[in-house]
Structures are given as structure tokens and as C-alpha cells.
Specification:
Blueprint: H1 3-18, H2 20-31, H3 38-50, H4 56-89, H5 97-110, H6 113-117, H7 124-127, H8 129-134, H9 139-164, H10 170-203
Helix pairs in contact: 1-2, 1-3, 2-3, 2-4, 3-4, 3-9, 4-9
């Protein structure tokens, strides 16, 4: 069994054993910058809704609560640790300077609102809480925006798993393709912003 298959089995077993608290725990781990994909957690929960083992709304709320709790952990790490701390210890949970830098640039460009909108962006949704903490964003606003941004994302994934039923795992390949497209778009936007800033500096 490969590491990916083992990871999927681990996620399934934890949710089957713990139910809604398992969803909260797994989504909190993902939002605390540890790479456990929500694209597996929530659609599998949707399949359990299809089987009558869970409720659609309750599973979605559990996912959003987990996202918010994990985001708070990352926020606190950024708030008290700062950039040097994150880069020093983040490598142990696969946080690199490139991912953190992308999140910092988006937060700098769009401010607090990116905390809400980033919840549907791959990679960025996991790391955006770090620059929010480093920038000392208002904590209550951060919590509210994190929950409100996470809820529709979690609901969409649960509903997709519910709608597909036994074929829910087909979503994994779809999301892999979408992630690549979105990541490519983010890279293009960042390059455009950098070039635009350089041109403005040259014209001054």
C-alpha cells in the first residue's frame, strides 16, 4: 500500500470511528498547515450522508468548525512566532518560503478579505492564516471570516460526495486537475503584480 492509499484509509477510518469530531479534527489539522486534503475528508463525509450515516448540514458545519480551529492555531503561530519562526520550524510540516511568500503577497494585496476568499484556493487556503497572524489582523474578524469562508467550501465538498455516492472517489482526479489550473492562475497573477510594481517604480 502506497502512502497516498494509506492516507486515504487513515482518513476514512478516523471519520468512521469518531464521526463528526473526526471531521473537525482532520479539518483542523489541514488548516493548521499540515497537508491532509479536505478533498478527501469532506467528500467521504458526503458519501456517509448518502449512506444515511451523517447529516449534510451537520457534516458541513463540522468541517467549517475544524477549518476555523486549525486556522486559529496557524494565526497564533504567525502572531507570536513571526516569519523567522515559521520558516525555521515550518519545514517540518512542509511549509516552505515559496508558499508562505505567496500567501503574504495576497494578504498584503487584498487585506482581510483574502481570509474569506482564499478558502477555495489550493495551498493558499492552508497558509493564509500565517500572514494574517503576522499582520496582527483583528482576531474576531479573522475567526468570523475563516468560518464563513470555510462553510460554503465544506458544504460543496460534502454535497459533491453525497451526489456521487459510491463514486465519490472520482472527485480526487477532478480536484487534482483543478488544483493545477488554479495554482497556474495564481502564479500568473503574482508575476503580473510583480511586473506591474516594477514598471511603476521605473516610471517614478
Amino acid at each position: 500500500m502506497g502512502i497516498i492509499e494509506w492516507g486515504i484509509l487513515f482518513i476514512k477510518n478516523l471519520i468512521l470511528d469518531l464521526g463528526y469530531p473526526g471531521i473537525i479534527l482532520l479539518m483542523a489539522i489541514e488548516s493548521a498547515c499540515i497537508p491532509i486534503p479536505s478533498e478527501i475528508i469532506m467528500p467521504f463525509s458526503g458519501w456517509l450522508v448518502y449512506e444515511g450515516e451523517m447529516d449534510l448540514i451537520a457534516a458541513s458545519i463540522a468541517g467549517a468548525l475544524g477549518c476555523t480551529l486549525g486556522s486559529i492555531i496557524a494565526y497564533v503561530a504567525g502572531f507570536y512566532g513571526g516569519r523567522a519562526f515559521i520558516l525555521r520550524y515550518g519545514r517540518y510540516i512542509l511549509i516552505d518560503e515559496k508558499a508562505l511568500g505567496a500567501a503574504e503577497r495576497l494578504f498584503s494585496k487584498y487585506g482581510d478579505s483574502i481570509v474569506f476568499f482564499s478558502r477555495v484556493l489550493p495551498i493558499i487556503r492552508t497558509f493564509i492564516s500565517l500572514p494574517a497572524g503576522m499582520a496582527k489582523m483583528n482576531f474576531l474578524h479573522f475567526v468570523i471570516l475563516s468560518f464563513l469562508g470555510s462553510l460554503p467550501w465544506c458544504f460543496a465538498l460534502v454535497y459533491a460526495g453525497f451526489a456521487l455516492g459510491p463514486s465519490w472517489e472520482s472527485l480526487l482526479e477532478i480536484f487534482r486537475g483543478l488544483d493545477l489550473i488554479i495554482i497556474g492562475a495564481i502564479v500568473v497573477i503574482l508575476i503580473w503584480l510583480i511586473l506591474r510594481r516594477r514598471n511603476k517604480m521605473k516610471t517614478k
